[in-house]
Amino acid sequence: MINGSSYKNAIISGANNIINQKAEINALNIFPVPDGDTGTNMSMTMESARKTMEETNAQSIADVSKAAASAMLKGARGNSGVILSLLFRGISKGLAGKDEADGKIFVDALKIGVDTAYGAVMNPTEGTILTVARMAYEAGRAACEEDNDPIIVLSAIASAAHEALDKTPEMLPVLKKAGVVDAGGKGLCVIFDGMVSLLRDGVMVDFDEEEAAAAPSLRGDGRDEFFVNAAAQFDTVINFTYCTELIIGRDPEITKNPSALRSYLETIGDCVVVAEDDDIIKVHVHTENPGKALQEGLKFGQLLAVKVENMKEQHRKAAEEYQKAVEQSEEEQRRKEALKPVAAVPGTGFVAVASGDGLETVFRDLGCQHIVNGGQSMNPSTEDLLEAVMATPASTVFLLPNNKNILLAAEQVVPLVTDRTVIIIPTRTVPQGLVAMLSYSEDATDELNTEYMTTAAKNVSTGSITYAARDSEFGSTKIKEGEIIGLNNGKLTLKDKDPVHAVVKLAKEMIKRDSTYVTVIYGNGISESQANTALESIKSRTNSNIEVSLINGGQPVYYFILSIE
């Protein structure tokens, strides 16, 4: 028999399991709106139950189940979270008055949950969490007819849920087109797995804080299968603009049946879900008139919480992100293709490390065949550098690390290459790398070019404007996290509140009478207007014999980089 204590721990284990795996479930979510990410919504719904389970003193399975269901309903997020809460709400009704449950009792309770969930959704769609729950129940029913052991029955339920999940792409063409299974169904499988782990195996799934936080990037880094396969994601038609959710505190003097509220909402929108318990009514609807939904809700009690989101605007932004991700994925693929090893042929090649579209373009224009993405806080590995060198079709390859933290990794490349000569130009900054490339002479030997490029790099002063990553103290100067700071050849010399003002001050500090060229490189977070303001301010404070130019580097971390020769 399953008692209150074991059921409580099973819910905690199931909650931990989906919290740990929410990122994986989010990546299956082919519908960008209206309800956010399925894994996040379902995990937050279960998190509400987990907290309640950890605090409750309930002893019977009936009381534990009721407490869990109530917490889930109050904490339910989005369609998937509400449906999940309804499943457990139905289970709670089936377990009412029970101290413990055998297989048949639990299956009967699950049947109530499945019926409740189906009944709450207008036009239920097969191939979703509803299908997974129904087929899991059917397998549980068949299992308990042979053996009433609740562990055997729950194992059958969990196993059948996975089998049903695998069939969801055949039931929903949009899933098949995207090459994924249903995200809500996957979430339910994960929860069942966590519960069975505790009840059958005696193993509580622990909450893994690092795993739960490590979401795969859905913002487009070229490595996420979600963006590669989910081309069907934005085929979804949005019939109504506003996703509207309400929590209504029930008024004991109002005897109207909440089914009347559901009937009304179906006349002004779709995706209607109305769930209730003794204290609250939870409402979800997509509509053009959220105000009408609120007004109707007031007829059943006080509004405790209201959320209204513009799904079409969410869809537009998500589509833009998707397109950007596709483009970045294609660019990543081109990079990989370009880094295939090639034979060394007579001639000279160049590999540089840089980050930012503008800086990459400048280095390519100066003759670099390959740019390794990296720099401060993004140090490439020796293997990354080696790949770029081996993809350069030249008998001699000059490698410019352009960062002091990459020098050591670059030096490791030399003994690893046997079919071509690798020469490290010890550039410690991007400006040093740019000037070194400008100093290369096609008429000189490799030895002379090494000397020319190294000497030129040493004669460059580098200034940079960035932000403080943490509170710190340099001598008598106290720096607060987020404050704008200026570095003169790596030494912190000023702080400010505005990056434009800071770069002008830094330039004034660094430019000497014998300076001849000043290049201002602006990065992410700086607009063209701000960059031109900085340029004109520096020019106005500089001797007319000094040439001052501007480059859009697009680099991260640094608002401005100054190159002074």
Compact description:
The chain is α+β, with helices and mostly antiparallel strands and 565 residues long. It has 22 helices and 18 strands. It has 4 domains: 2-216, DhaL domain (Serine Threonine Protein Phosphatase 5, Tetratricopeptide repeat, Alpha Horseshoe), CATH 1.25.40.340; 237-311, 2-Layer Sandwich (Alpha-Beta Plaits), CATH 3.30.70; 339-456, Phosphotransferase system, mannose-type IIA component (Rossmann fold, 3-Layer(aba) Sandwich), CATH 3.40.50; 461-564, Hypothetical Protein Tm841, Chain: A,domain 3.
Any low-confidence stretches, pLDDT <50, length ≥5? 31-36, 214-235
Shape: elongated
Largest sheet: 6 strands, mixed
CATH class label of the largest domain:
Mainly Alpha
Summed up, the domain count is 4
Mean pLDDT: 86
CATH superfamily of the largest domain: DhaL domain
Number of helices: 22
End-to-end separation in angstroms reads 81 Å
Question: Helix- and strand-based class?
Answer: alpha+beta
Q: Order of strands in the sheet with the most strands? A: 15-14-11-18-16-17
Cα radius of gyration in angstroms: 31 Å
Keyphrases for this structure?
565 residues; alpha+beta; Serine Threonine Protein Phosphatase 5, Tetratricopeptide repeat; Alpha-Beta Plaits; Rossmann fold; 4 domains; four-stranded antiparallel sheet; 22 helices; 50% helix
